[in-house]
């Protein structure tokens, strides 16, 4: 018998485990041209919270009673498709299930094990890494002498955005929600400064750690953190915006105060969705994989075992429990 995780109801405010169910389900059938898969790693991502809501978004919403879908690393255990062989390791947007089938093999991408751990295709060498690169480098355009501020800096994207900006010559400051996370940023990721926003107000932290103002703000958070960054921004600052996790579990929209700074300071604030940049992934991997192998680039994963723990793992990630990228491992590599 197979097992999958389904959405049982739409959350109002904070999502909790009552919104999910772990259910037995039928084994998938591998038809002509299809590929049968055994899941190994499931990705937990903040944007999944938005897909639990009704209404339009940039990604289709989940249906009640249907499996949660995210990026999954899987092993091919049966194939009626000439492009895939039994034993291949792939990633794709698949059900949160022990086993699933990719119709006609569509949406599957083979993983090159020479680049690094297979889990890295969901983290540092996957969409989180590419998000950090596009935001921090292509949109943020850091230069020597700049001050770059990264919110949610110990997360899957933030830890890399800061390191990329640092490699480009910027002075990098991060904020995170615990002293352990601050230590990780300073001791492992090479940030120039970092502070715990739960014990030091964002306004004071930026005043102390960014005395020359902010030239690049990588926004993962939105809300009052974005408002503070606007107040401390320099003229012609760049604000790549890849997420607003502070609002994902809120009811209603409080809005952002201080947007007049966009005009008075000529700030370039650019929202971006990484799926508009997927065509850059191979080039990104070729550039970054050698840094990862040599130890020049640091990345931390937080791996939770067991498919039944996936809902709690997702919720915990959204509440800031993790350092780095949280994955759920459901089978041995």
Please name the CATH topology of the largest domain. Answer: Rossmann fold
Dominant shape = globular
Number of DSSP-assigned strands: 15
Helical segment count:
9
Helix content: 10-25%
Distance from first to last alpha carbon: 21 Å
| Subunit organisation of the chains | single chain
Strand-pairing-aware structural class: alpha/beta
Strand content: 25-35%
Order of helices and strands: EEEHEEEEHEHEHEHEHEHEHEHE
Q: Give the C-level CATH assignment of the largest domain.
A: Alpha Beta
Calculate Rg over CA atoms.
Answer: 20 Å
Unreliable residue stretches? none
Average pLDDT rating: 95
* CATH superfamily heading of the largest domain: NAD(P)-binding Rossmann-like Domain
Largest sheet: 7 strands, mixed
Indicate the CATH architecture of the largest domain. 3-Layer(aba) Sandwich
Would you give an account of this structure?
With 333 residues, the protein is an alpha/beta fold. It has 2 domains: 2-119 and 300-329, Quinone Oxidoreductase, Chain A, domain 1 (Alpha-Beta Complex), CATH 3.90.180.10; 127-275, NAD(P)-binding Rossmann-like Domain (Rossmann fold), CATH 3.40.50.720. It is 25% helix and 26% strand. The chain is built from 9 helices and 15 strands. Strands 3, 4, 5, 6, 7, 14 and 15 form a 7-stranded mixed β-sheet that branches. Strands 10-9-8-11-12-13 form a 6-stranded parallel β-sheet, sandwiched between helices. α4 (179-187) links the parallel β9 and β10 (193-196). The longest helix is centred in the last third of the chain and has 14 residues, at 281-294. The two termini are 21 Å apart. The mean pLDDT is 95.
């Amino acid at each position: 018998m197979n097992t999958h995780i389904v959405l049982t109801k739409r959350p109002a405010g904070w999502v909790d485990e009552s919104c999910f169910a772990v259910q037995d389900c039928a084994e998938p059938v591998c038809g002509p041209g299809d590929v049968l898969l055994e899941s190994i790693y499931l990705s937990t991502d903040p944007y999944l919270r938005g897909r639990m809501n009704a209404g339009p978004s940039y990604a289709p919403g989940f249906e009640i009673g249907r499996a949660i879908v995210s990026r999954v690393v899987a092993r091919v255990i049966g194939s009626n498709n000439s492009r895939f062989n039994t034993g291949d390791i792939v990633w794709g947007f698949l059900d949160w299930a022990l086993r699933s089938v990719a119709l006609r093999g569509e949406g599957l991408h083979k993983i090159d094990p020479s680049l690094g751990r297979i889990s890295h295709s969901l983290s540092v060498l996957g969409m989180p890494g590419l998000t950090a690169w596009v935001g921090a480098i292509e949109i943020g355009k850091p230069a020597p002498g700049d001050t770059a501020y990264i919110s949610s800096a110990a997360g899957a994207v933030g830890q890399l955005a800061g390191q990329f900006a640092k490699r480009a010559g910027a002075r990098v400051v991060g904020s995170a929600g615990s002293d352990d996370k601050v230590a990780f940023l300073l001791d492992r990721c090479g940030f120039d400064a970092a502070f715990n926003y739960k014990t030091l107000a964002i306004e004071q932290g930026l005043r102390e750690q960014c005395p020359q103002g902010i030239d690049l703000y990588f926004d993962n958070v939105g809300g009052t953190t974005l408002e503070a960054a606007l107040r401390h921004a320099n003229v012609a600052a760049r604000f790549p915006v890849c997420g607003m996790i502070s609002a994902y579990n809120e009811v209603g929209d409080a809005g952002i105060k201080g947007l007049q700074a966009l005009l008075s300071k000529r700030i370039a604030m650019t929202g971006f969705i990484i799926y508009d940049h997927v065509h850059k992934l191979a080039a990104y991997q070729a550039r970054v994989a050698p840094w990862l192998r040599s130890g020049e680039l640091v990345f931390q994963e937080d791996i939770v075992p067991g498919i039944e723990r996936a809902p709690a793992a997702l919720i915990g990630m959204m509440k800031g429990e993790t350092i780095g990228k949280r994955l759920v491992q459901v089978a041995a590599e």
